[in-house]
Write a structure and sequence with these properties.
four-stranded antiparallel sheet
């Protein structure tokens, strides 16, 4: 009798455990379905927001590049100027000496030293030059290797500068292997030497041209009646 009662009790216990598991699963499933139902519109909204943020970031990047496309940065010019006119003369004399090209005051939109002057530092601050004539700026960039005592660079955005900095280690490694390697805007280009002098010379000249070339050729930007760019209508044209 006692043995039968014990078996009956175990059977009831087993059934109750099974029902508890089934009930727990049903409740959990119902709760998860409700959560999914509530989360679905939030996830969709989040997806839309991410897409809009990506578009805004792209527009900001475009505006930054567009703002800097007429600029150059000059390094290594001693700070002997007293006035802005003196600074212009320093820039003009260096460009004329290296490229036999004169720069008029009407060619320059603005120019200034970057950063605050530190009394304890003997290193001259770089100079930002913004041109009104982009063709003159491009001519200087294309021939920047002809400068001997100063260094001329494009005015890259912060993001591009960070990418170029990260690529410097790999650039040195590839050159140490004997490969032709150079930075083209924010990309590292690597080419193996062929062993043929003329062909390698052509590759080297291509490297110099690529380093000096503009990274992006921009299409015309449609503007409104006030002359402001319609950002959603711009188009990038890559090399």
């Amino acid at each position: 009798m006692a043995e039968n009662f014990e078996k009956f009790f175990e059977k009831i216990k087993h059934e109750m455990q099974k029902q508890t598991v089934d009930l727990t699963y049903s409740i959990t499933t119902a709760i998860m379905d409700k959560i999914d139902e509530k989360l679905k519109p939030i996830l969709e909204e989040n997806k839309i927001l991410k897409s809009e943020i990506a578009i805004l970031e792209e527009k900001v990047e475009y505006l930054q590049k567009d703002k800097k496309k007429s600029n150059i940065i000059i390094f290594g010019v001693d700070e002997t100027e007293k006035t802005r006119d003196d600074l212009f003369e320093l820039i003009n004399s260096n460009i004329k000496a290296a490229l036999n090209m004169s720069v008029k005051d009407t060619d320059i939109n603005t120019t200034f030293r970057i950063g605050s002057k530190k009394s304890e530092s003997t290193k001259p601050r770089p100079i930002l030059v913004s041109f009104t004539n982009i063709w003159k700026r491009d001519e200087i960039i294309r021939n920047k290797r002809r400068f001997s005592n100063i260094y001329v660079s494009e005015d890259f955005t912060k993001e591009v500068l960070e990418k170029r900095k990260l690529l410097q280690v790999q650039l040195k490694e590839e050159r140490s292997k004997g490969n032709i390697a150079y930075l083209k805007y924010d990309k590292l280009v690597i080419k193996q030497r062929t062993g043929k002098v003329e062909q390698d010379k052509e590759e080297f000249e291509s490297m110099k041209s690529a380093e000096n070339a503009l990274p992006i050729r921009r299409a015309r930007v449609k503007r409104d009646e006030m002359g402001r760019p319609l950002l959603n209508l711009y188009k990038k044209i890559t090399d």
